[in-house]
Every structure is written in C-alpha cells, then in structure tokens.
Design brief:
Shape: elongated
CATH class of one domain: Mainly Beta
Oligomer: single chain
Number of helices: 18
CATH architecture of one domain: Sandwich
Strand content: 15-25%
Subcellular location: Secreted
GO molecular function: lyase activity
Structural class: alpha+beta
Distance between the termini: 35 Å
Pfam families: Alginate_lyase, CBM96
Main location: secreted
Number of strands: 25
Keywords: Lyase, Secreted, Signal
Largest sheet: 6 strands, antiparallel
C-alpha cells in the first residue's frame, strides 16, 4: 500500500514522497505559533469537611494528644489544642494531628500552592506552632499521646519521634487574633503535598506542635458545628496528562472492550479481524537497527524502514488485543518489540539534499504516530512492563525519533507536517512533556489552516511562513505547485478542498487521519482543537467523501476519476504517475481506513451534520485493509464511543 501510493510524485524540483524541505531549526516554527492556551489552566480546589469539594466530603481526620491523659482519645472534640504547658503550670504538652484526604486530585498533577485555613478560638504568641508531615499512620478515633492506633505506639510519645514526623517545617501558625487564619505553606509544604498526590498512600497528614511555646493555641476541629469554621486545605495545581490518554483513553478502551464482550457491532467484527490477522502473531520477531536510513526521490535505500513500520503495527495490534483479552501472551509480544527498539535504535538519518536519507523525517513521523500508542496502553494497563523499561522507551523516542520531527517540514500543510504534529504530540503525552505538548498544539493550529481551504480564508489559501513574501502574499509560483495545479479558490464549491486533493486522495486522507488523531489526543488532555477548526474539518471531510462514496473502488483500490474543469485544472504540470504526467481535471480516488474519529466527534458527540462522511463509513468498515501506517484499527478504537471518558 505504501509503495503504491508513493508512485505519485511531484515533478518540479527534488522528487519527494509527501513534502518539501525541512525547517533548519525550531525558531522558524516557534515564531509562527499562535497564542492559544495549551493544557487546562491551573485548578484550585478546597478540602473542608461537609463543605468542599462537595457537601458529602468527609475526608478530614483530626484529633489532639495530651500528655497529662496519655491514654485518652480526643477524636470527637470540637477543637484542637496545642500547648507546651497544659494544663497550666503542669509543664506537660498537647499537640494535634490533622489529615485531609487528597485522593481526588488527579494523578500527574503538579502542585503549585497550598494554604491551610483554620478558625482560631484561642490565639497564641511567641514562636508559633509548626506543621510537620506525619510519618506514620494514625487513627482519629484511636490516637492518644501514647499510641498512633490501638495496635501501634508512637516511636516517641506525642508523635515526637523521627519515625512519627518529618523534621522540615511545612508552615507556621502564629495568629494574633481569633477567627479565620490562613497559613501559606512554603516549598517544603508544597513538596510534601506533591508527594501525597503522587502517592496517596503516603498521605498521613500533619503534626501540629511547637518546640517551647507555653502560650497555647486552640483551633476549631472538623467536628465543630459551624461548617465554615472547620479546617480547610486549599490546593492549586496544574493538571497532569491523562494516562492512558494518547489516541485513546482508558474509558474508550473499556467501552470497546464491553462492546466486544457483548458481541456488538462493528466492534466485534473489527476485533475478529485483528485477532485473526497477521499482526496478532505473538511469535513476531522485531528487526530494529541502530541507525535507520530511508531513501526516496529515486533512492531505494531501506535500512530498517519497512521493518520498523511492520514492527510498530504489530506492537499496536498486540497491545489492543492484550487490553481487550487480557491474555498475557499479547502483552509480552508487544513489550518484546518495544524493548528491542528502546535498546537498539539510536538515530534516523537525514541529510538535507541526500535522497538516500530523504524519507528519514517522514519515517520518524510515522513511527511517532504508531509506537507511542502501544507503549501508552501497555504502560498503564498492568501489562507487566516495568516502569524502568517504559521510561527507557520514552528516552529512545526523544533520542532517535523526536529530532527528525520537532521542527516540522517546510512547504506548507502537507501530510508530512500533520504526521509530524501528531507524532510530536504523542511523544509529549507519553513522556509527560508539557512544553513539547504546547509546541505540538501550535504546530496543529498552524498546519491545519494550511492543509484545508475555506472560502473564509479569502481569495487564496493560508500560506506557510516559508511560502509567502514579506508582505504576506504568496511567492511566485508556489501556490500553484503547493496545491498541485488547483487554480480556483474563493468560491463555495472549493470549500474544504485539501492541499493534496489534486495529488491523490490517499495522501489527502493521511492528513485527515493525523489531524483528527492529534485533535482526539488533545481533547482527552483537555484541549478542544476540534472546536477551534470545526467548520474547516467538517468541510474537508465532506468535500472528499462526496467524491469517494460514489466513485472510489472497494478494498482500498485506486481509481483515476475525470472531474469538472474547476478542479485540478493544471494537475499534469505537478503530478506524475508511473513516470508520466497525469491528465488535468482528474483526481485519484482511494478509501483508506480512517474517518471514524472525525465522525464520532462531530456527529456522535456534537450532533453536527456530515451526511457524506456518514455514507462513507460503511465502505471504510468493509474495506480490505484496516491498518495502513497511522490509520490503524480506528473502527475498533473510536467507532461510536461518543463522549465516553470526557
């Protein structure tokens, strides 16, 4: 399939598979990023018993410990007492324990600030009282001066041993008046709460104590009648990445798994295709190479290129089968492929102007679109893949693959750029790299506007930075060559036409796939790219589907179709097939296994009208191939999933 589609090439200049010259560095791309938000903004949430995050929140535990009554529990008291001389003139101590259940904070969140608000009923003076991280489990209804629980003692009475509390002061309480009082935790306090978010089981709360202060401090406890006076912890955090959240989410995978189990269509049919196909081979032997070299433009050099794509398709299929069957043999086979690449692949060669390395960036893009999908599923589904190996695989992606795609590809919004964008986003999510994710959003926003034309763009399509003059106009001849001989713009009938439509619908569909896949990943991560370009993406899909439904052959076959004079009027000047110029006013039809993601989002989720795309889907699902580079098993993963998990 890949070799057949690459038979169509551009005539002028260097022969290429799908694009143009690589940008020299990241500066050119960064300069044209639009100022849009990336991941969801910082979130602030408060934890207060009976109040927030909801009126049913009961996740606060607190009590106070008194040396004078070492076996007495005060878990139901309405106040928390701290003092180095209680009762007065006794020289005995009292201190407090306080814990907030923070398990609802999302995994991967980055804690930015933490504030503790209490209601002071007896103010103090002097040195203040300090917050320490509790070092052992304790029970609100059982803790006493002598014991943490009914079955365990403190290492030193009053929770004062090194095993009972940390040594770092997380915050200081020194209220001058009674009433509400807020302390902002310092860096050590933020680090402690971050550790609790990262590992909720480590959250044992705070010990409140002083070193010498004999002027006591009393606070309202979580049992006090007035809700607003109960202790409150306020955490501001930056949401982390959702995992698994690359191409598919856990909720989507679980939805499809349930459909397969229920024998529902079209999922069961697609699953049966996957489980009975060649990519389900658990004895598959991967063939990674240290240095990958992929030629094009007349060069047939292939050192690890075709094999790596086959390895990636095997790994992805096997990962899906593992998830839906929980048969360990599938996971083991997929892990074996990924580990082989993590241990072997060092670089993908590319030398500008060298045809023997020309397809290096495109190869890297395809691998970045496919390999991380498998890794994400395996890493977050209990497959047995160790975290060390999973991290090692991410290191390989950044070492060998990312350098070839992170700077994009000059020449506008061809499928090269869209594949690169999707690949960069995948690597960003897999490696939890927020800056890289933001960069991928900028790439998407730039390239989707270059790839598909809307009449609202004006009399000509949106150009890439390297395609335009200083005054913003297209460079001489570049518009015509970039759009493969399409001459008419500015009319309703060309609304949604793709930059590569006059080249062939195979390559134009590859852009549909990469753009929609990246938008789906972004949506799972909280960024709605679909809404930003709704009109453009619907128009692009409907434009192609109107031709594909009545004219494209079955089973992924190709057909040259005569079209009206306003379409591809000068195609023969820029596209050849089998070494010969193609006729003007023709288009190359081909149905490839994508379309599900766009249709699911705009029709199933949003209720938009896409009649031609809807009519195309049955032919996609009945096609002869369900895997084709980045277009792989989309019916199995995204058909009818709606808004599950969002």
């Amino acid at each position: 399939m890949w070799l057949r589609r690459l038979a169509l090439v551009l005539v002028p200049g260097t022969l290429v598979a799908c694009g143009g010259s690589e940008l020299p560095d990241a500066e050119a791309l960064d300069a044209v990023h639009e100022a849009h938000g990336a991941l969801a903004a910082d979130v602030t949430v408060s934890f207060q018993r009976g109040v927030s995050p909801s009126s049913t929140y009961a996740g606060v535990s607190d009590t106070w410990l008194q040396e004078g009554l070492p076996s007495t529990n005060a878990g139901v008291d309405t106040l928390l007492r701290m003092d180095r001389d209680y009762p007065s003139a006794s020289g005995q101590s009292a201190n407090a324990l306080l814990r907030f259940d923070l398990s609802t904070l999302p995994a991967g969140a980055t804690v930015r600030s933490v504030k503790l608000t209490v209601n002071v009923t007896n103010r103090t003076s002097g040195e203040g009282f300090f917050l320490y991280a509790a070092g052992r489990d304790w029970n609100e209804a059982q803790a006493t001066w002598a014991r943490a629980t009914s079955t365990s003692t403190w290492s030193a009475a009053g929770a004062r041993g090194s095993a009972d509390r940390g040594s770092s002061v997380l915050g200081t309480l020194l209220p001058a008046v009674t009433g509400p009082y807020t302390v902002t935790l310092g860096a050590a306090g933020i680090a402690a709460v971050q550790a609790w978010v990262d590992n909720p089981a480590s959250n044992r709360g705070f010990v409140l104590d002083a070193n010498t202060n004999m002027d006591g401090l009393d606070l309202a406890s979580s049992e006090t009648t007035t809700l607003a006076q109960r202790p409150q912890l306020t955490v501001t955090y930056t949401p982390g990445f959702v995992h698994p959240g690359l191409h598919v989410s856990k909720a989507q995978l679980d939805f499809v798994r349930a459909k397969i189990g229920a024998g529902a269509q079209p999922w069961l049919a697609q699953f049966n295709k996957a489980v009975s196909g060649s990519y389900a081979n658990t004895a598959w032997t991967p063939k990674p190479v240290p240095t990958m070299q992929c030629g094009n433009g007349g060069s047939t050099v292939d050192i690890g290129c075709y094999n790596s794509r086959q390895d990636a398709l095997h790994a992805y299929t096997l990962a899906l089968l593992w998830y839906h069957t929980r048969e360990q043999r599938y996971a083991d086979a997929a892990i074996r492929i990924l580990d082989a690449y993590a241990d072997t692949l060092q670089t993908i060669l590319f030398v500008n102007g060298d045809n023997s390395t020309y397809n290096g960036p495109l190869q890297a893009a395809w691998l970045a679109e496919l390999f991380p999908r498998s890794a994400e599923i395996l890493r977050y589904s209990g497959s047995g893949w160790t975290e060390e190996k999973a991290v090692r695989f991410g290191d390989m992606l950044k070492r060998a693959v990312l350098p070839r795609i992170t700077n994009g590809w000059a020449g506008g919004g061809s499928n090269w750029n869209n594949s690169m964008t999707n690949g960069v986003m995948n690597i960003a999510v897999y490696t939890d790299d927020k800056a890289l994710f933001e960069k991928s959003l900028g790439m998407w926003r730039q390239h989707v506007r270059e790839t598909y034309y809307l009449t609202s763009d004006g009399a000509v399509p949106v150009s890439a930075p390297d395609q335009r003059n200083a005054d913003g106009t297209w460079k001489s001849g570049v518009l015509l060559s970039s759009w493969r001989g399409q001459t008419e713009f500015g009319t309703a009938r060309v609304n949604g036409i793709s930059m590569e439509a006059c080249r062939d619908f195979g390559h134009a569909t590859m852009s549909i796939a990469s753009i929609s896949q990246a938008a789906e990943t972004a949506l799972i991560q909280g960024v709605d790219l679909f809404s930003e370009q709704e009109a453009r993406l619907i128009a692009s899909a409907e434009f192609m589907a109107r031709f594909l439904v009545p004219h494209a052959p079955d089973n992924n076959g190709q057909l040259t179709l005569p079209v009206d004079s306003w379409l591809c009027a000068r195609r023969s000047e820029f596209v050849t097939k089998n070494g010969q110029p193609v006729p003007n006013n023709t288009m190359e039809m081909q149905i490839l296994p994508t379309w599900e993601i766009l249709f699911n989002h705009y029709v199933t989720r949003k209720g938009r009208s896409m009649p031609s795309t809807g009519a195309l889907l049955p032919r996609v699902r009945a096609g002869g191939s369900f895997t084709d580079l980045q277009m792989s098993w989309e019916t199995l993963t995204h058909a009818g999933v709606g808004s599950v998990g969002l």
